[in-house]
Amino acid sequence: MAKLAHAQWSSRMAFVLAAAGSAVGLGNIWRFSYMVGENGGAAFVLVYLACVALVGLPILVAEWMIGRRGQKNPIDTMADQARQNGKPAAWMGIGITGVLAAFLILSFYSVIGGWSLNYTLGSVIGTFSGGSSESIGEQFNGMLASPITLLGWHTAFMALVVAIVARGVTKGLESAARAMMPALVILMLILVGYGITTGHFGEAVDFMFSPDWSAVSGGVVLSAMGQAFFTLSLGMGIMVAYGSYLGEEINLISTARTVIILDTVIALLAGLAIFPIVFSNGLSPDAGPGLIFVTLPLAFGNMAGGTVLGLMFFLLLTFAALTSAISLLEPTVALLEERLSLPRLTATLIGGIAVWLLGVAALLSFNVWADFSLFGLNIFDFLDTLTAKFLLPLTGLGSIVFAAWCLDKESVRQELGFDVYDFSAWNILVKYIAPLGVITVFVTELM
Ligand code: PHE
Question: Would the CB of 328 count as within 6 Å of ligand 1?
Fold first, then answer.
């Protein structure tokens, strides 16, 4: 008996780690903090938290549920599930947009993963020691201005991702993730502690949690919703694929809650670490994608033990980025392998090179192609906006509408372990609140 209970716990644990490995990444630290800064702080944070709870949780559960029933790659899973439930095969469209979104995201994700690698090395050689906000800002701008530097680091990061995915050694990484998550949380706590010593912690807390509702526009709400999808790896078929490895005994709701709490806590700690540094150095919160690469080296460069802590931090950030990047490449590789019957190595190389090429276009938008724009955005921002604000929410909307309206109700109730009373509350959430929330955000933003 005891043995059985232990085995089940350990498999749930393994699953939580795999899902958290995908969810926790640059999105929590790099993207969350710069989005908070760009969107005016607290109003964004609170809308984001509401999106995570009311839209993110049900969609995460819906994606796992679809994956566990389908047991195949996201596209075929959607096609099978639609057929079995007497719905049009067009539902597999949401499998396709998901794989496309993952492909597009990885291209610019790898560029930022490259920055993180570069800053890991920078910490080792003590580049930031005693730096001022000017000198550290100049170093960052110097990196952006140099296509060769960016290209080198982007290539290095993508090469790591391809090497790991090609060998299929993701299992080993998952056990490493077991040590990484707590270490990351501890380092974030140390940084928050440093933030408290700056004397500007209160200002940061106000900035993050006391909202000026008049600053909320459709754009802020759409950004917050996009961030919720991005950070939870939703709307990409990734969680559908993970769900296909899930055993029957795993309770989806409580597992989703665990993953979401971990992901959200790391993001909020990142904000509480970064904004005190922003305010104490007179920096501007809306510095954009460079925010953590200017603030954190400044903190590490000026605190006791900063060299070692900085090295550990950027190493962990790179590691978290790698575990997410692997999950982003996997859908493309699986599709190439299965549809074109390519060997894994070939599929990984083709997928990896295609992503890398698009990443080159993204990194050039920081320098030589800075003036080139699509819909008023440079290539980097265009890829980020197209995916986070459009493809992910639309794909996620598709999966929740499918799970709520097309799957057999009684089997869903049993699968989720709800009594009749809780099930009606759940139904209201998945049938109306979450989908209408997503649709409302779209309609108000587009009008
Ligand atoms: N959720 C990851 C992060 O926050 C990014 C990611 C997005 C990973 C989509 C996989 C799929 O960094």
Answer: yes
Q: Within a domain: residue 150? A: yes
Name which residue sits closest to atom 11 of ligand 1, judged by CA. 233
Closest Cα to atom 7 of ligand 1 = 233
Largest CA distance in the chain: 66
Ligand 1 site, residue 22, Cβ cutoff 6 A: yes
Q: Does the pLDDT at position 98 exceed 50?
A: yes
Q: Distance from CA of residue 155 to its chain's centroid?
A: 21
- How close is the Cα of 2 to the center of ligand 1, in Å? 36
Locate the ligand 1 atom nearest the alpha carbon of residue 327 and give its number.
10
Q: Residue 270 has what pLDDT?
A: 94
What band does 332 get if pLDDT is binned at 50, 70 and 90?
A: confident
**Ligand 1 site, residue 302, Cβ cutoff 6 A:** no
Cα–Cα–Cα angle for 79, 389, 231, rounded to 5 degrees: 80
Q: Does residue 27 line the site of ligand 1, with CB under 6 A?
A: yes
Number of structural domains (the chain) is: 1
Q: How confident is the model at residue 172 (pLDDT cuts 50, 70, 90)?
A: low
State which of 108, 165, 231 you would mutate to test the pocket of ligand 1, scoring each by most atoms of that ligand within 8 A of its C-beta: 231
For the segment 260-272, the average pLDDT, to the nearest whole number, is: 96
Closest C-alpha to ligand 1, atom 6: 233
In the prediction, which pLDDT does 35 show? 96
Question: 6 lies in a domain?
Answer: no
Model pLDDT, residue 4: 36
- Say yes or no: CB of residue 272 within 6 Å of ligand 1: no
DSSP classification of residue 168 = T
Task: Return all residues near 120 (Cβ < 8 A) that are at least 6 apart.
Answer: 311, 314, 315, 317, 318
Q: Which amino acid is at 264?
A: T
Q: With respect to residue 1, please indicate whether it lies within any of the assigned structural domains.
A: no
231 lines ligand 1 (CB under 6 A): yes
pLDDT, tens digit, 9 for 90 and up, residues 33-50: 999 999 999 999 999 999
- Whichever domain contains 113, its CATH number is 1.10.4160
Could you tell me if residue 65 is inside a domain? yes
Residue-range definition of the domain harbouring residue 188: 12-446
Position of tokens 């920081």?
Answer: 366
Kindly report the pTM of this predicted structure: 0.91
Q: Which residues make beta-bridge pairs with 377?
A: 374
Residue 174 confidence (pLDDT): 62
